[in-house]
Each structure stands twice: as C-alpha cells, then as structure tokens.
Amino acid sequence: MNRVLALAEKELLQIRRDRVLPRLIVLLPTLMLLLFGYAINFTLEGIPLAVADASRDRVSQTLVEELQRDGRFRLVFQAASPQEVLEAVDRGQARVGLVVPAGALEKVRRGESLSLEVYVDGTDPNFAFQAQAALRKAIQEVNARILLGRALAGEAVLPPLSPVLHTLYNPENRTAWFMIPGIIGLVLTMFTVLLTALAIVREAESRMMESLLASPLRPHEMVLGKVLPYLLIAFLVALLVLALGHWVFGVPVRGSLALLLLAMFLFVLGSLAAGVLISTLARTQVQAVFGTYAYAFPTIFLSGFVFPIDGMPRFFQALSYLVPARYLIEVLRGVMLKGVGFSVLWPHLLALALFSVLVLFLASARFQRQVAV
Fold first, then answer.
1. 185: Cβ contacts below 8 Å, ≥ 6 apart
2. What was the pLDDT predicted at 273?
C-alpha cells in the first residue's frame, strides 16, 4: 500500500508542477457550470417577430402588444407585405412572421372570423413548438377579451382571431434535419483542432521538431506542411458526414453546394490554425487534449448546435458571436434547409473568413516566436 501511495504522491507532484494542466482542471468544470447554469435555457424569450399589418387598427395593435407582453416576442421588423415577412425569416432577421389582413376591426365587429397567416422558422423543431404555443396563447388572450365584451352583450360568436400556421423549412419537424448541420460543425471542430494540436505536440515530444527546425524549411512552410494533410482529411470527413446526413437521414441540400463547401473550407482552415495555436501553448499531448476540449465547449453550448441562442441571457448571446461554429451552422442550415444564397449568408461567410485570417496570423506569430526561442 505504501508503494501505491508513493506512486500516487509522485503523480500529484507531476500534475502540480505542470504549468498548464492545473489551470485547465479548474477552468473546464467552472466553464461547464457557468454555461449549464446561465446559458442553457429551453424557455424562449424575445423571439424576433416580423409583422405585416395591413389593418393598423385596434385589433391588430392589441394583438401585437399582447405578443410582446412578458417579453416572449420582440418586434424587430415592420413589413409592408407578406413577401417581406418571408424574406425577413429567410434572412434570419425574424424567426416568426405574422400577417394581419386589411379590415380586421370591421370583420370582428361583423362577427366574422379573421384568419391570421403565421410563418414559423421550423429549422429547430423545439423552437417551432414553443413559438407556436406562445403565439396561440397570445391570440387566445385577445380572443378572450373580445368574446367577454360580446358575451356581456348577449352575442354568441366564433373566436374572432384564427391563426393559420405555416412551419417553414422543416414542416415535418424532423429532429435529424436540425441536428445534422450542427453535428457537421461539431465534428469539424473536434477533428481538426485535436488532430493538428496532437500532431505538432507529438513532434515536439519525440524531438522530431528539432530535426525539422534544423532543415531549410521556414516556420510558415512548416506550419503549412503540417496543416495541409489535415485540411484534406478534414474536408473529406466533412463531405462524408454531409453525404451520410443527406442519404441516410434525408436532410435536403436546397441551396448552393459550392457555397456550403466554401463555408466548410473557411471554417476548417481556421480550426486547423486554432489547433496549431493550441499546440504552441501545450507542452504535452494531455495538455493539448484538455486545450482542445476547452476550445470546443463553447462550440457545443454557444453555437446553436443544440441549445437555442434566443433563450440565452443577453451576455451569452453576445458571447456566441465569438464562436466561429455559430456562423458555420448558420450557413449549413441556411443552405441545406432554407435554400438561401450568398445575398443572405454573406455576413456569416465574412465572419468565417475573418476568423480564419485572424487565427492563422496568431498561430503563425506564436509558432515563429516558439521557433526563435
């Protein structure tokens, strides 16, 4: 037993002497606790709403006010036509669109039922279910107020407002259609960052890096030489996952395949550079693995992969803009499910390009500094 305890003591001393590992051991559970405690919230608030109100009378204004009560919906766009409502949902500016036809007040006064066209972004089935439930509840509240006045007057009438729900992009609410694009983003993140970081750290541990440093290769040539094979492998893996998602789970690709491949290329390039950056900070393969997990956790929780960003507090919503996988997943879902093109997705592609350039610059600078030392 004494020998076991002595060995355990030696391991603890090694961990304590490690400059990076103890920090990661504290950082990871702390990060998980904060993300689980604050960021993950399945109850949606502030759902972006676009409204095309052709009536602009007391009925439509009461309905819009009721939708925004308690902060469940947030009016972000006043559309001039139903087409503009659909375009706002396509762009992601709004996730629910409401069309109120002209003459709402007159129809209600005549005791007729008024049909409201409602368009819900169905890429996330859980979101679509909650949004529809919240919208029905608001309409019921308005109906109850109107019917109460008529009941007091002795009139028996139909429910004044009747929603006609349209679930866009994923009308059958298939969970796989929502998950597959996110899984592609997660796989690419873990695969590229971990493999690259491990490959370079392994070279350093086995002293092979010293042989490379003695060669005529320049630092940026070494980085490119290490990254290129993984760029090819990661791209093939992405295509494999994409093909399996399409052929096995039936996920459509309604938009431009070239646009989708461009987004994946930019993301993979940046992720590989992130792997190089982690390798310059890690001294052992264990540190590289922990560093990769620390990098990947925000991807899982803050990218919209599983948990809706709309349900997060404002701080974490702002923080999610720093997670590159968010932009990739937006492009993947936009191309695959919505079928939208460059005119809608260019901000996300620009963000991915900036991410790749910035991380490549940091990785190259850090690597050159390490070589100089």
1. 267, 299, 303, 305, 325, 328, 329, 332
2. 86
Q: Is the Cβ–Cβ distance between 263 and 328 less than 8 Å? A: yes
CA-to-CA separations, 330 to 184, 263, 368, in angstroms, rounded: 12, 10, 34
pTM above 0.70, yes or no: yes
The per-residue b/e assignment along 130-139, b for 16 or more CB within 10 angstroms, e otherwise, is bbbebbeebb
What is d(CA 336, CA 339) in angstroms, rounded to the nearest whole number?
6
Adjacency order of strands within the sheet including 161-168: 73-79, 47-53, 96-100, 114-121, 161-168
Residue 140: CA atoms inside 13 Å, Cβ hemisphere, count?
A: 6
Q: Which stretches does DSSP call E strand in the chain?
A: 47-53, 73-79, 96-100, 114-121, 161-168
pLDDT tens digits, one per residue of 102-126? 888 888 888 788 889 999 998 888 8
> Is residue 354 classed as helix, strand or coil in its secondary structure?
helix
Rounded distance, CA 204 to CA 200, Å? 6
User: Who contacts 282 (Cβ-Cβ below 8 Å, separation ≥6)?
Assistant: 20, 197, 201, 288, 291
pLDDT along the chain (373 residues), means of 10: 74 74 73 69 80 89 88 90 92 91 84 88 86 89 80 63 89 85 85 82 69 66 76 82 86 91 90 86 80 80 80 82 92 91 93 92 78 61
Measured between alpha carbons, how far is residue 298 from residues 32, 78, 113, 325 in Å?
Answer: 9, 34, 47, 9
Task: List the one residue out of 286, 268, 288, 280 whose CA is nearest residue 227.
Answer: 268
Q: For residues 288 and 69, give the distance between their C-alpha atoms in angstroms, rounded to a whole number.
A: 48
Side-chain half-sphere CA neighbours of 324 within 13 A: 31
Mapped onto helix, strand or coil, the DSSP state of residue 251 is coil
Q: Closest by alpha carbon to 367, among 242, 176, 156, 221?
A: 221
**Nearby residues of 268 by Cβ (< 8 Å), 6 or more positions away:** 188, 192, 231, 234, 235, 238
Cα gap 23→283, rounded to integer Å:
14
Angle between helices 219-247 and 175-205 in degrees, nearest 10: 150
Rg over alpha carbons for the chain, rounded to the nearest Å, is: 26
Report the C-alpha gap between 49 and 75 in whole angstroms: 5
